[in-house]
Amino acid sequence: MSTGISSSSLFYPGLTPSHTVDPDLYLRPLVQVRNPFDIGPTPVTGSKSVVAPVVTPKVMAGVDGQGYLDQFYGKIHVTPSTLDFGNILSNQVRYVNLWNGLLTPVNLTDSVGTDMEGIVVIEPLTPPVEIGPLGEYQYEFSVNLEGPPSINASYVWTIDGQNYTLELRGTRIVVLQANADWSSPVEETLSWATDVMIAVDGTEQRVGLNTNPRQVVKFDIKTDTAENTQYVMNQVYGWANRIFALPMWENESVLTVDHNIGDTTIQFDPAGWGHIEGGLIYLWGGDFHNYESVVIDSFGASNIVLSAPLTKKWGRGTRIAPIARGFLPRSTKLDYLTDGMVKGSFNFTVDSYQTSAVINTVAAPALLNGLEYYDEAPNWADILTHSFESDYVLLDRGYGRVVQEAINDYPVEVFRHSWLLGSRDEINLFKEFIKRREGRRVPVYIPTHKTDFVVVDATSVAVPLITVANSGYSTFIPVTSRRYGIRLEMVDGTVILRALLGMSKLDDNEVLTLDSGVGDYQPAQFRKVSLIKLCRLKSDSV
Q1: What phi and psi values does residue 21 have, to the nearest 5 degrees?
Q2: DSSP state of 18
Q3: Is 422 helix (H, G, I), strand (E, B) or coil?
Q4: CA dist list (Å): 47 to 44, 51, 52, 252, 403
Q5: Residue 436 carries which DSSP code?
Q6: Residue 186: DSSP 8-state
Q7: Where are the alpha helices (DSSP H) in 201-309?
């Protein structure tokens, strides 16, 4: 368009200088518009007529908005449409309502179930039958333990030629009635999976491959009567390929108050159980046929709220334990001591996705340089081992010269510690500590708990030095990044932690350089001085 203006950009009034416009968009030829109030020399004359506008109807598409009544009336309802029984430990009963929401009668021509083994249906109607307007009927579905381990069934009503389906889901679980024989230990093993990549210089990169550990529980059993022997043998044979509900005997406790039929709470403090809502509880009265399994709804301050009332009366002294899902290995052996007594060992693998429900997740109580510091002393009644694993290249053809070349400057140190835990609280704290390790993935600071140095001179709070007897440390092991600090334990029980910065020889002794002074102490006041090292678990299994 030719406007007589040659410019690549143009500023217009009303636009700030920061706005650039295209002239073709704004420049137009000016057209003179006459003022309607301007009276010209030639007035306009003639007749006036009114013309009505032509209206064209507009057609729009849409849908009918659903109101409250539309959600309920004018259709057939099956409520609920799915029954999820979850883990079935005993006979379960559920109810389903069939409602004709129409204002006219309908015809029920058929009702049939598929894969309903072990499921009993009480039907209020027998097809063919007419259901009146707004007619409602209740069906009862009862599931027992006699049937396949997995429930994947359906029940279909055919009404006026249309099918209405109810889905039934669940897993049958049998509670193992063979109780642990406490004359031998109950062993619990937790196993993670970690990919550890070790560089030539010894540094590591560790990647965890699972969130929850595998949990294996091993315990011995022994029956004392022919009746119990038969029950155990038949139960193992009939359910060996399926999932058991396994009482966790290591967390077993007893009730201290009586409980009656219909109670919906159990007066018991589950602190340390680590179970979550929806978990299972096992109540045992002393024989194979006197037990009850209940589902946890929630936890109170000192009680457990159940999802369903108790069906039996349980008095003081009743044994109570949490339940986990577990399965046996492919081969299980039981030995007959007599014709009515058996003895054996069960090795159960617990569902790994439920392991986190039996171990609390708690933050580390103490940190050192941003990582956990674990100061619990090992059990010196057991042997503490300290081994060294060297890595080198060996060239030996079986004759001639032997060549050995080290890959790393120092070997890997392996410490074997054991702990004796004397209470339920101590056991739970230790399991929480192990869970935080996640197998080999997460390191931790641990003192050797050995006498690594012997103090021979007085110390001062103002001087960050300690004189110790010559241990050969400064000669053979220079301070490296693998030596993180020392733990000083006093005779009165005081524990002091310091970073170890360096070491030097002084006459026949050695001098440790610390990050700060430890205080004014005499050598006799020091009970033990131990090195602190950054460690990880050697194995993914504990």
Answers
A1: -125, 160
A2: T
A3: coil
A4: 10, 13, 17, 109, 125
A5: H
A6: P
A7: 226-239
C-alpha angle 120-126-131 in degrees, rounded to nearest 5 = 120
Record the tokens describing residue 407, joined without a space.
């890959």
Q: How many residues does the chain have?
A: 542
Write down the pLDDT at residue 31. 42
Rounded to the nearest 5°, which phi and psi values hold at 233? -65, -40
| Distance from C-alpha of 20 to C-alpha of 17, rounded to nearest angstrom | 7
How far is Cα 480 from Cα 478, in angstroms, rounded to an integer?
6
Three-state secondary-structure class, residue 237? helix
Cα gap 170→184, rounded to integer Å: 36
Most confidently modeled range among 93-107, 417-431, 477-491: 93-107
Q: What SS3 state is found at 488?
A: strand
What is the DSSP secondary-structure string of 67-106? Answer: -HHHHHSSSEEEESSEEEEEEESS-EEEEEEEEE-SSS-E
pLDDT bracket for residue 128 (50, 70, 90):
very high
Residue where the block lists tokens 């042997």: 383
pTM of the full structure: 0.70
Which bin fits 507, alpha (ψ -120 to 50), beta or left (φ > 0)? left
**274's torsion region: left (phi>0), alpha (psi -120 to 50) or beta?**
left
Q: Which has the closest alpha carbon to 470: 488, 483, 456? A: 456
Give dist(CA 503, CA 510) in Å, integer. 7
pLDDT for the residue 241: 85
